[in-house]
């Protein structure tokens, strides 16, 4: 169904750009049938007439995976074409919305419709096709109208609401599996995809972990799809990247469970939502592993303002002790990108990526911090872990102060050792930011947003993926 007038009006107000597919997908439509073609033209006219005044309508697309289906069935290139997409719809767009670009189909544009390096792609190399993370660069994606579909695990409260006493049975319980996306007839589902990257990124065996420590399996499963998404967008937002953007599949689940959505069916953000909020920051710092060339540091300013900033860079041993560090003052021009190498910043050899492997690694984490030069406030941070696996859990020295002001409740967090994937669990409150890494010696203020209208006092736990035990916190009513 096409969205309502209210939807487009709200997108106009919020500045959200709409890629609008006409409602055609995965089918050999009978363009030679005059009655059917008349229906198509009237359908297009009705949509375009009522959205004439909506600036949020940014791209019009003939449909989804019609050309791809024909090509994957073995038909030759001339057989992919259909007058609906090459004649009827572009004619309607040119007549009623000539200001809006028209794409005949998604994917399309290459020697095969689904070639990622040409035209518009549906990119699932990293994802369903289990490609390594560096495929996000190797595939040379131009634009992804769909990408990064995972069985995204919701926050713990939502998992508990769905599973009840069977929370330890996620991954195989029928109540859980019914919501996990899968392709019809396939012998795998998107939970298998997520488990593949859990194994790759964290160096654990998902099946064994689910049996021996289901709570840890749940927490790592919550974290991993967001980490993959951040890594892919770090590649795509490089100044030298071929990619002009990508639309994550998809926004919200239709029912409880680990669906494709980055928001669950009750409207609560999933852990991967927080990762995307970081990945999409308009002023950003990213790190990419360039092997023997070290780390590349990418600084982006997509705003219209010039920004005076300081870039700090540190390699940490045991997540606490700096063994290499540097800083540089930067002037970020409006709508600009800058790439620096770790070797240029450090001005000497240090095996930041552990590519040369001269003996044991000298550090286990690298953090790059972009801060406002005048105030010292952190704008963005990026982290790199040369080992690539999740370290053993340890006492991190996490600390939390519960604060209250006219805006409500907040937590002030700090840690002695780098805390990975910080989670804040409270039945009455939701953290505005979580699943972030917290660097040692830094403080972070996290607002607590009430889940309801109650006058509850914060009372919960703070977890970190590499932490030995959760930290309890409780506010004081006054």
Structure description:
The protein is α+β, with helices and mostly antiparallel strands. It is built from 12 helices and 21 strands. The chain has helices spanning 5-14, 34-50, 66-72, 83-96, 135-138, 156-163, 174-177, 190-202, 206-212, 214-236, 271-279, 342-346; strands at 18-21, 57-61, 102-103, 121-123, 144-147, 246-248, 283-289, 295-301, 307-317, 321-332, 336-341, 365-372, 378-384, 399-405, 408-414, 419-425, 429-431, 436-438, 444-450, 459-463, 471-474. The strands form 6 sheets. Strands 10-9-12-13 form a 4-stranded antiparallel β-sheet. The protein has a 4-stranded antiparallel β-sheet with strand order 14-15-19-17, with no helix packed on it. A hairpin with a 3-residue loop joins β9 (307-317) and β10 (321-332). It is globular, with a radius of gyration of 24 Å. The model has no long low-confidence stretch (mean pLDDT 96).
Please sum up the structure shown.
By secondary structure, this protein is of the alpha+beta class.
